[in-house]
Every structure is written in C-alpha cells, then in structure tokens.
Amino acid sequence: MLNILLSRLRQGYHTNKYSVETPELPLRFRGLPRFISDLCTKGCGKCMTACPTKAISKRKGITFDLGKCLFCSACMDVCPTHAIDFSRDHRLATRERNNLKLKPDHHFGLAEPLEGNLHKLFSKSFSIRVVSAGGCNGCEVDLNVLQTLAWDINRFGIDFVTSPRHADAILIIGPITQNMQLALKKTIAATPDPKLIIALGTCAISGGIYADHPEQRGGCDGHKLNADLYIPGCPPHPLTILDGLLRLLGRV
C-alpha cells in the first residue's frame, strides 16, 4: 500500500487545466475556416469542385457550410489565391444550424448557454446518453478521450450514462443509418423531458462523407431533427467537444 501511495506522488497531477489554460494543440490541427473574399478569384470555382461533401456553394454568395465540412483542406490546397485557410481556433460549437453556414468575413456565432430552468437543471450535473448511429468510430474515440485522466470530463459534472432514462441529453454520432433510425427514435422517446439533443460530428449534422449513400438520410438535417447543440468536425477534437458542452452549460 505504501508503494502505491509513493508511486502516485511521483506521478503527480496529469489532468490538464482547461478551462483555465488551453491545452497545446497539435501542429496539424485545423480549426475554424477563414474565407477572405478580397482574395477570391470570381468564377474560379476550384474549391467547390475539390470539396468532397459540397460544403462550399455560390448560392446567394459564397457559403462555407461547417455542418458539411470534413476539415480535409482540399479547398485550401487548390485555391490559387490562398483565399481559404484553417485557423487554430478550436471553438466550433453553436446552438443554431444556420450559424454553421459561414459567409466571407463572417463572425461565427459560438454556442450560447442554456436559459432559465434548463440552465438551473443542467449547469451543475449533466448526464449524456451516446447513440452511435452508424458512425466510423472516429467521433466515438475522441469522445472517449474526454473520460481519460488527461481530460477528466467528470470534474465538470458531465457524465455518460448507459440508460436513456437516466440521461439529460442524447448525443448523436454518425449519419443515422436506416438500421439505427428506430433505435434512435426509441432512445429519444425513453429519455425524460426536458431533454436536449446534441449532434456531434459532420456525419450527425448532415451525413458527412456518407450524405449520398442510400442506407442513410443525411444525419439530423435529413431527419429534420433540430439539435440543441451542433459540434462540427470529422472528427471534432476533444477540446472542441468539451468547449461546446461547457458553453452550453454556461461554464465558459
């Protein structure tokens, strides 16, 4: 027993200090995209052609849809004038689907805290039931990282539960395949009111890279399911996920 205690003292404290300090992000991290309209060559269209999910469109002016973006940088790589790049801003979560549709030089609307009784109910203790609705396991892995020693999401009062009857929110991962539609519907129905819905990752928001596959209908967009929090990414970085959840709870 004494050896165990000594070993624990030698190891020290490994949990990062977020949200007091922002953990160091990897060099290859791609955050909030930036589109500089003054550098864009009108009529070029190379970025739209290169985008595998059609996240960039010219309808009513250039629009960059984060809900479809894979953060693959294909648009940035083909742009001859370098009008598109990816910042290192990890803050990507928002409360409204339309906020994910960025315009040139547009200010991104970060997630606002819950209001009124919902804030009182969930700000100190928040239980989440995860539904993996046909995902590739990328978002699942980064979500699991938040439960490790380095992140320790439980210190913020956020917990993951196995039963929807114990949950405050349903967190959807994956494009919601045909085989998972009924399971998701039953899980949402079994969760007591008031409840929240969180769409995690591009697939859960719009179908992502699988958007045109016949076995699914395009995530929350295709099912006309309005989420209370959208966290884009493919997959979102653990810091992006944690930041979104804490903003929703009014903890940032």
Topology:
Elements: H1 2-11, E1 33-35, H2 46-50, E2 56-57, E3 63-65, H3 74-78, E4 84-86, E5 101-102, H4 116-122, E6 126-132, H5 138-145, E7 158-160, E8 169-173, H6 178-190, E9 196-200, H7 202-206, H8 219-222, E10 229-231, H9 238-248
Parallel strand pairs: 6-7, 6-8, 8-9, 9-10
Antiparallel strand pairs: 1-4, 2-3, 3-5
Give the beta-strand count.
Answer: 10
- Structural class given helices, strands, pairing? alpha/beta
Approximate shape: globular
Run of helices and strands:
HEHEEHEEHEHEEHEHHEH
Give the CATH topology of the largest domain: Rossmann fold
Describe the structure.
It is a single chain. The chain is an alpha/beta fold and 252 residues long. It folds into two domains: 33-90, Alpha-Beta Plaits (2-Layer Sandwich); 116-248, Rossmann fold. Helices cover 27% and strands 14% of the residues. The protein contains nine helices and ten strands. The chain has a five-stranded parallel β-sheet with strand order 7-6-8-9-10. Helix 6 links the parallel strand 8 and strand 9 (196-200). It starts with a helix and ends with a helix. The model has no long low-confidence stretch (mean pLDDT 90).
Characterize this entry briefly.
With 252 residues, the chain is of the alpha/beta class. The protein is built from nine helices and ten strands. The strands form three sheets. A five-stranded parallel β-sheet has the order 7-6-8-9-10.
